[in-house]
Amino acid sequence: MMRSLIKRANEKTRLVHLKILLIILLVVTAVYFVYFTGGTKKVYVHLLYVPIILSSLFWGSFGGLTVGMVSGLLVGPLMPLDVSSGIMQDPVNWISRMLAFSLIGFFTGHMLDWINQLNREAQDRNLSSPFYDLPNTTKLIFDIESSIDSEEHFKIISIKLTNLDGIEKYVDSELVFDLVKNLAKQLEHSCGRKAVYSYGKDELILLVFDDCVEDYEEKINRVLKHYSTFPISLAGYDIRVSLKVGIYEYRGEDISPTEIYNKARIAHEQGEHRESGVYYYDVSLENKRREMHDITGALLESIRKDELFLMYQPKIDIVNNKISGVEALVRWNRNGNNFIGPDMFIPIAEEIGFIKEISKFVFENATTQMEMWKNRGIDIKCAINASAKELIDKDFINWGQETITSKNVDRSDIEIEITERAIAYNDKKMIKTMNYLKERGYQISIDDFGTGYNSLMSLGEIPFDILKIDKYFIDRIDRIQIRELVKLFIEYSHTFGKIVIAEGVETEKQL
């Protein structure tokens, strides 16, 4: 740190010396040229305006005034009007010129000072947060770049207040500003520079240098823990703040300031969105996020490129050891050689609103396959997964009805699979839809049973035909507690004439 400061000071001193040398050289050259071209009666005396104006640019009004006076004196009483005849200048002539040089130097410098001041004010506005009296991320990038050039090591800490929008909308919009200002003040520290920045209303960024006070990081942890653990009293309200904190340590890597800042923001994307936590940057998380963005773009083209396809997982009736039906499972072969798992692309499809297109693809192709099997004398039931949003969408339900009507497929052979969590998504509408589908002849199965919010508590209210016990329980069925729970599920369902399917039976012991 000290070495970089000395280096910067030496560079600044050298620059000042170079400027002085340049002005002296220009003045001497101009004076020399005036003398050897015959004196001040010729136009060459005006060459001195160059160093005068340049000095105004370098040092402002004082610099312009000084060089103007010196230049006026050098081509003043000692400089002949006409060198060849030896005629000297009239004092009024050279004094007037010296005053003109001085005034031009002074006012040029003053005007440049004023312009520079306006530029500084505009730059300050560009580098300041529109919400708080703090520098913004543009200033942060400049400071990071400067620190990299100075070979400094530092940590960048991104603090995201994840519930600030709710406080602004439902409690008090002015309270938001007081809350963030108060937190920023608590996080100020002695690093010899301002190092708390603002991004938008709900994010603060800190630069913590290695030369900061030793206990500063401990202070940050105390402040953040206090804010996220205890309610903050402001304007008569007790507010609990949710903070996601991301930390990236810079140790001289060859990366840009923007990348450094983004790595801290990537770090705080870990954990649940509304839960407080402190997270360090993890390169695997960045790679995963990059992969997800890449997949998101490609997913929108997957149907058009004919990359999605269906596989059919058989359901085995353990009484007669025969196939009693199948479940249609969508798979994605991206670019012909890269298989993307449904656990990755289905959540993305739901998030970006593409799940309906995928569901239509599955329904269309599964019913087409059922029709082909039926034409070959194979009558088999097929289970098709459906999301909550689709089942409460009348347009989707009507489209499904029309698709079935256009094919040689019985509704009773189609099993609509709904996850237990999906039923909790919108209980009343979902149960109404399920009753409607049963009346139309479809079978209804509850998928992933035991992992959601209802379980046995509200099972009696759900109109279902088939209960699917989640693989989680089957994998642990050797434990007495799990085994008794599974037994309870089966007995309950059989009591009411329902069918039970166990997912993921892979060993003889499990069977």
TrEMBL record:
Keywords noted in UniProt: Membrane, Transmembrane, Transmembrane helix
InterPro entries for the chain: Cyclic-di-GMP_PDE-like, EAL_dom, EAL_sf, GGDEF_dom, Nucleotide_cyclase, Rev_trsase/Diguanyl_cyclase
One Pfam family linked to the record: EAL
Residues annotated as transmembrane: 15-35, 47-74, 94-115
GO molecular function: cyclic-guanylate-specific phosphodiesterase activity
Domain of life: Bacteria
PROSITE patterns listed in its UniProt record: EAL (PS50883), GGDEF (PS50887)
Domain GGDEF: 155-283
Matches recorded under CDD domains: EAL (cd01948)
Domain EAL: 292-511
Name of this protein: EAL domain, c-di-GMP-specific phosphodiesterase class I (Or its enzymatically inactive variant)
